[in-house]
Amino acid sequence: MKLVFIGYMASGKSSIGRIIAKKVQIPFIDLDDFIEKKENLSIVELFKTKGEIYFRKKETQFLEELLKNEESFVLALGGGTPCYGKNIDLINEFSTSVYLKSSLQNTYNTLSKAENKESRPLIATIPNDKLKEFIAKHLFERTTYYEQAQHAILIDNKGMDEIAEEILIRLDDPALKK
């Protein structure tokens, strides 16, 4: 089985992905970490030195490489990955996709905390009084792609273990296993 998590920043893609991978005993892969290892550069350095177009091409190349591999895994994508090229079609063709859906308010509450902002270059310099508007605009642009996932799980007011259990129950249907 290939299980791919999509969603906005701070929706829990990596955290929930790790929990599920451990429970079903298959490898967990974070696409950003995978790209950094392959390119020997951080995502921030890739953007600075080679540009976003180069990054997006590599992102699609490595996503396709992983998805067309025969191995089972749980994969967490960057928030923008499904929104470029034909990535969402590729994801849905070769895996089971799950959108971790968070309300604007829940997303803002999580991202407005200093410890969450500092590690995210996209929002690090945006003051909190402008952050909600930034998130709303971004979600508006990306939701069309996110909603093409085969499954959507609302994560508001739920713990990571509760969300993971909800996903595992839903995926227990043999018809969903790819």
UniProtKB/TrEMBL annotation:
- What do the Gene Ontology cellular component annotations say? cytosol
Cofactor(s) for this UniProt protein: Mg(2+)
Q: Which CDD domains match?
A: SK (cd00464)
Q: What does the cofactor section's free text say about binding?
A: Binds 1 Mg(2+) ion per subunit.
Q: Where does the protein end up?
A: Cytoplasm
Give the UniProt keywords, A-Z: Amino-acid biosynthesis, Aromatic amino acid biosynthesis, ATP-binding, Cytoplasm, Kinase, Magnesium, Metal-binding, Nucleotide-binding, Transferase
Q: What does this protein do?
A: Catalyzes the specific phosphorylation of the 3-hydroxyl group of shikimic acid using ATP as a cosubstrate.
Q: What is this protein called?
A: Shikimate kinase
Species: Aureibaculum algae
Q: Which gene encodes it?
A: aroK
